[in-house]
Amino acid sequence: MTNRPRWLVLIRSKPYACEKAVSGIDAALACGAFGQPVIVIFEGDGVDILRANQSPPPGERNLFKQVMSFPLYDIESVYVVDQESKFDKEITVNASAELCIESIDLQELGEHIAQATHVFELLMTLHVLHTGASNTCMGAIKPDDFVLIVDKAVSELVAKPHLLATLPNKIGTLLFELDEAAVNALDNMGNVVLLSDDQWVELTEIHHNQVVWA
Predict the structure, then answer these.
(1) Would you call 129 helix, strand, or coil by DSSP?
(2) Rounded distance between C-alpha atoms, residue 45 and residue 94, angstroms
């Protein structure tokens, strides 16, 4: 007798910012409806889906209510990766009262992924800007993507901070390429993260979808 396939749905996207969170929840519900063992893990911005106080845009489904329907689909294994302490009292009271949610760390996340037969995750795209933010580039970047600025793009965007404000909240730049003036300028911008070489390597490993704008 063989074990049935085990699905893992990993949701990292902020609710209503794009279709990724909705697709992840739909995938979990579909697994449950067809009797497939499934666990659901919320990480990063995806944890916000567990907040009861939501105001979905017109025409959008309330994702919190959909998650609360998981037990109806025999989905009982739900986890939150608590690396940023976002699993706060509000979520504990509102969500855990109706659904059993367990907090896990990154090591336990890796163990769940290793044990799963199938992992469903809609990955964000990593955009690497070498020469600034063109209209074509700007139109291709989605709110949930990650943008890395390197080379000439750093000096251009430092000189034009209004362009940085139009990019997603997740922007990184390689620390070793920056002079002191650039470091100070970027450090004052809340949506820019200064990255080490090791962190850059990690980014390229976890983002399977990458677009380089040279």
Answers:
(1) strand
(2) 17
Residues 178-205: tens digit of each pLDDT: 777 777 777 766 667 777 777 777 666 6
pTM, to two decimals: 0.57
**What's the one-letter identity of residue 70?**
F
Q: In which element (H, E) is residue 38 found?
A: strand 38-42
- Give, in degrees to the nearest 5, the angle at Cα 57 between 56 and 63: 30
CA 46 to CA 116: how far, in whole Å?
A: 20
Position 200: which residue type?
W
Where do runs of H (alpha helix) occur along the chain? 20-33, 63-68, 89-94, 106-115, 135-140, 152-159, 161-166, 180-187, 197-206
Q: What per-residue string of b and e applies to 165-188 under the rule 16 or more CB within 10 Å gives b? A: eebbebbbbbbeebeeebeebbee
